[in-house]
């Protein structure tokens, strides 16, 4: 269709020739014009060729058969173009709307950020104000505390002054009273001496009269008694029947008295062996009628616990793993011996005090279904010549038990020491002999457990009777930690959790505390650690609100450590060298300069090298001693 409007045709250069259709020439080119004139002419020239071509086309169209169609097509084209224009307009409108939405979104985002920033600023300001208020409050508190302290200090000072004044007054008063008293006594003595001196003759006369009277009374009584006995004897001698009757009566009376005495003592011994508890036995799990009458509640509770299932022999006893293994074997063997009615083996337990010897022995008896009896070696010597009878009585009593008795002798070295020793008395020697006689054979009724801190003092015959020797050492680091946990739980956590008593515990890491305290308590025995638990409990009860804090635990532990070290220092040289060398070597030295109380829990423990050097130094010192 381009031909219709002629825009696709190549443009004809303007020519001077007349057009083919005979029309007018476009313009007559002026000839011989200067350049400037030509330029001026160019400005007014109009190219009419396009119009001409359009007119030509219109004419051709008029003549053409398809003129109408062409017009329709051009109309359609125009409409299409208009629709395209409309679509574009819509697109532009949509783009405008889109840009408006985008603008709104950006605005909203801006506003949100601004709001956020404002909130943040507000928060920061609030926090800062809060911080300021806190600081101000703390300062006020501090100020208040200071003033309180100052008041307290002044009050204390004034009380101390008053106290000093009061004491001085009392002392002065007492001094005066003492002086007055002395003066009174002196005056009294003087007056008495003067009176005595003046009444000397009268007093002497009185004494003489009294003595004469006494003499006369005694002489008269002797005369009367003599005459009565003489008359009686005279009558008896002269009458033979009376003499015989009197002799028979006296003999019968003597026989009656002696036989009654013998029968009573036999019956008493029999009853004592079955009902009572021998004097040498301090503690026993065995039922005794006398004990039941004396302590009924204790006896009932013991009887109830005896009916319970046998307990673990090592329950609640914390020992080194090796020792635990050995003791477990012994417990199993003892239980089987009892069940099979075999012969018991005698044990020796030795080691420093408070390491669980007695505790384990009791548990062993309970675990094996036996009864136990505890005696102390130190009780034998004071009994003197009665010790032999007491030992026999104890063995008789033990032999009457059907369950079997674990006879635990604490401090056994006190009476089972070497017979050749000069320090042993005759009575003690006799007691030892009696003991040796009663233990000469293996027994299926009595299991002997000797405990001693110095087993090297035993008589060789005693050593011969021992089947197993077990050393109870001081607890190591791990055992100490277990012990501390055990007693912290027993004495603090359990009563606190029951809530019956007035005891609370602060929130802190108990486990970490136990670990740290174990490091500090080197050289302390199980007994010392159990006392630590009791001390914590007591401190909590003593506090105002019944609350136990971490710092209280640490302070109490430090005190105990300090006391323990002091006790170790007090041990005599002999004791140190004889019994405690292996255990003392493990103990860190006591440094009097450092106040353990001030030390904090965060202190680093000694290094291995330091410990070794200290150990060596101590060894050398002990050797020198
Ligand atoms: N190994 C341990 N495990 C748990 N508790 C222990 C241990 N050792 C000691 N104790 C605590 O210490 C207390 C005293 O212990 P025990 O009487 O058994 O010591 P011991 O070795 O017989 O001392 P001693 O030679 O002075 O008689 C026990 O009742 C227990 O509370």
Automatic annotation (TrEMBL):
UniProt subcellular location: Mitochondrion inner membrane; Mitochondrion matrix, Mitochondrion nucleoid
Recorded coiled-coil stretches: 54-125
Annotated CDD domains: RecA-like_ATAD3-like
Secretion signal span: none
Region of interest (Disordered), residue spans: 1-31
Family matches, as InterPro entries: AAA+_ATPase (IPR003593), ATAD3_N (IPR021911), ATPase_AAA_core (IPR003959), P-loop_NTPase (IPR027417)
Highest taxon in the source lineage: Eukaryota
Keywords of the record: ATP-binding, Coiled coil, Membrane, Mitochondrion, Mitochondrion inner membrane, Mitochondrion nucleoid, Nucleotide-binding
GO molecular function: ATP binding; ATP hydrolysis activity; zinc ion binding
The protein's name: (African queen) hypothetical protein
Organism: Danaus chrysippus
